[in-house]
Amino acid sequence: MSTSAPPIYEFGEYRLNATNRMLTNNAGKRIELTGKVFDALVYFLEHPGTVVDRQILLGALWPDTVVEENNLNQTVAALRRAIGHDYIQTVPRRGYQFAAEVQRKSEVSNSGPGRVGRSPVRKSLLTLVAGMLFVGGGYYLWSTSDQAPDALSKPAKIAVLPCDNLSPHADDAYLALSLHQEILEQLGKLNGLLVVSRSSMMQYADDRPPIPEIATLLDATAIMECSVRYSAGRIVVNAQVIDPETDSQLWTGSYPGDLAEVSTVINIQSEIARQVAQSLGIDYLPAEQQKLQRTPTESLDAYAEYLKAKQSISWGGYSLGYSTDDFHLHINRAIKIDPTFALAYSDRALGRLSRLLDALRSHNVAARPDVSDGTLLQMRALARSDATKALDLDPTLGRAHVVLGAVEHLSGDTESAYARFRQAIESSPNDAEILSFVVGFYLRDGQQNEALELLAHIKQLNPVDRDVGFYFYLAGDRGTAVQLLRRLIKLDPTDAFLHGLVGYCQAIDGMVVEAEATLRLAEELYSSESRTGPSTGMLPTLAYAYSRIGLAEDAQRLAKEFMEIASTVSVNPMRWAEVQLALGDTEMAYNTLVGVANRPLPPFVSLELEFVLNSYNDPMFEQDRIVTLRRQLSGETFPR
Questions:
Q1: In the structure, what pLDDT confidence band is assigned to residue 313 with cuts at 50, 70 and 90?
Q2: DSSP letters of 333-382?
């Protein structure tokens, strides 16, 4: 007797067989999907064209388990990366919609004549594959479905502390810092492992709390320590992985070698990554092993210059740290030594983009722009040239894709820009800095829901970064913004700026008592830090926050301080608008905003973007005449 079999679905260039849980493209190539990602695709194919509520989809995918919405965000994000972003559309404040036409066909049962039955081994393999769960950009394996909730709540996540420099000569100190970043990038190539980003880990370069405290703050399941010593042509890298719950050693290794070839360093890095994965029970594919062992250049001199260039990088969302003369000096030397060094071209492209964005800030904000349009066009062309060269040499470099995306965006071709951004995300799903950069463009273009989906993953990779917290604030999730800012405060309880931002968010959310206490603490800390108190940038923020909780006298006091300072320096008009709103002078604020709306919206995250998105959550900004100004300033960027 035959039994009804699950159907086959065809859409776009894909064919999904629900029986053997296989997705293939028109060329017959199998598209690998983890268990929940596959289930999500099946659900969408069963409801084509229907707007699927997020809560309903959560219930369908996790019927017996309570999970956070971030898990759904990551599942949908993984599905988009696998099949393309055009198939699944985000419907603001509602859910998702599968936009493609779907054909459903029946399948002949496998039990029929002439069909070879599936072996027990094959069944076991499929069961294992179906048990893979995408969590935060990585894949976590468990042996049975009963273990799913634990795996879901605690994916393998490692925090690699900055490497101790044990080299006797000061000129070789760059090796420890640069190899730390290289090890992070190597570990980031393993899909099954979440790796805390460099910008979060550099908080511990000089001061290190106890291991359990670090793990708790970063939500890490393992901590890695390492040291680097180089002398007389020999290098020794020591590393160990520690279980923070038991403070016990999971793995330790020592790797000496003659530093005569680049392959020595690459082999050490790949072996450390392999051993770390093994110690944490992470499976990885042969293709991932090949990535780990790929040598970026055959020239040791070129690689040394590349590492020296990376030593000067300081990432932070839109604050690209590739502008320094020191960086460009060494990266240019690396390319001169080896003109086929793809990674060097990719990083120099970022350097040129960094300088371009710095110039654009001057061009857009300064009272007397010191950069001509011709110079800007030339800088853009140089960034494009390097990124294109990098991808000609290695098409998998996510950072080169993101540079081209930024260049296309600056050129007005947003469709091509987002195609490049998607390629960047697919190529570098665990590169928190690149992902943060893309989020900046999502926010700049009013795509807050898409930004939040990506930020959910970035938060896991970069849990103590103020730019990430600010991005959550811009995207309208002030609760998560405050959570991240409080993590940073644990690292430095005397940081007045962080306390001020927390108090500001509390004031916007109407938390009167909490906001007042936090704002007064911020002022006290500012006074202890300097004689002048808060800066011209922070004074309007504090004044506006006080006004939101009804403390008019405090708002007036800080507004007066701001106006005295601002009379002698150039200040962004949005700061004046904040002060005018704090004083209750809505007409003056409106006139200031008219001037803001008559200027172009900068092509990066800015104060003007807070106005466009109404991150202030201010009812005044929803008045018809203000909405008109917001639309005028933003154009197509106005929030959808």
A1: confident
A2: HHHHH-TT-HHHHHHHHHHHHHHHHHHHHHHHHSSS--S-HHHHHHHHHH
